[in-house]
């Protein structure tokens, strides 16, 4: 994992907001320029620090949404009710405003094109963000690794990267995108809304799932799985994946929780 | 959502602060639990980060395997509960 085992402590860097995009009514993607940024791998995160005029500061971790791209990176932030940091990032911060960040952080929950085997991505809510970075990195790197994304969201209105995902699903060979809705779906959905079920997930190679057909597999016959979401989602998804025959040691997880937003 | 483990994140959540101490990516560090002997990458251990400090617990037996806290001018690290932290040498 080049870049992940760098010597030297992480430094706080100044980041400037260049532009932003609205993802949902309560989530926004921030395009930041970070002079001195060392680059990152898909799946890594950053710590963000905001400091008030009186010196009070608050820190939060956010996953990087973008593929590696010079000194720029994108974060997608979901506003947490009564949060200290996220409402500012989603509703208040303007282009030209600055914040401090350090990173990239984490060499475990990462994907790079050097991994040639099949990949299953399972995201709940804003857990899609680091998985989107992996999908974008796959496309940027021209990798042919089979990717299957299972994205669980409350409703179609809560889906991040809506148009881009649709576009990728249509155009990219070897990429399968399944969205499942937990509260309310779209008209004509075959699946009734509800939390993640075993049949929403492809079975490990060898078995045939009615929805997706046989799962592609590498020489070792194993699909690497990345799961990201709130703790309860990750626990459930992991349990269901094991029921579907995925060995525990191929499943890499990242949990986020109610840490004050 | 009342089960206490809904508050358990994983080692990824403490990777930023711990890298201040270790100076390398910490999520791949292999930590061995003193109580049950299980070894796991830090990314897989349970992390409770909502208190004034953070507590790491073994996912196999739930024993505490490390704690750290930050005050205004120091970082406290207490690794009682783990027998070893194995980092891959880069050179």
Can you put this structure into words, describing what you see?
The complex is a heterodimer of chains A (261) and B (91). Chain A is of the alpha/beta class. Chain A has 2 domains: 2-105, Elongation Factor Tu (Ef-tu), domain 3; 119-256, Rossmann fold. Chain A contains 4 helices and 13 strands. Chain A has helices at 86-92, 128-141, 162-171, 231-243; strands at 13-24, 27-33, 45-51, 57-63, 72-78, 98-105, 119-124, 147-153, 175-181, 208-209, 213-214, 224-230, 251-256. A 6-stranded antiparallel beta sheet of chain A has the order 4-3-6-1-2-5. Chain A starts with 12 loop residues before the first strand and ends in a 5-residue tail after the last strand. The model of chain A is unreliable at 1-5 and 207-219 (pLDDT under 50). Chain B is mostly beta strands. Chain B has one helix spanning 15-22, and strands at 9-10, 30-33, 39-41, 46-48, 53-57, 64-70, 75-78, 82-86. The longest helix of chain B has 8 residues, at 15-22. Chain B is globular. Chain B starts with 8 loop residues before the first strand and ends in a 5-residue tail after the last strand. The chains are: A alpha/beta (261), B mainly beta (91). The A-B interface holds A 1, 4-10, 45-47, 59, 61, 102-103, 105-109, 231-232, 235, 252-260 and B 1, 5-13, 15-17, 19-20, 23-25, 27-28, 41-44, 49-50, 88, 90.
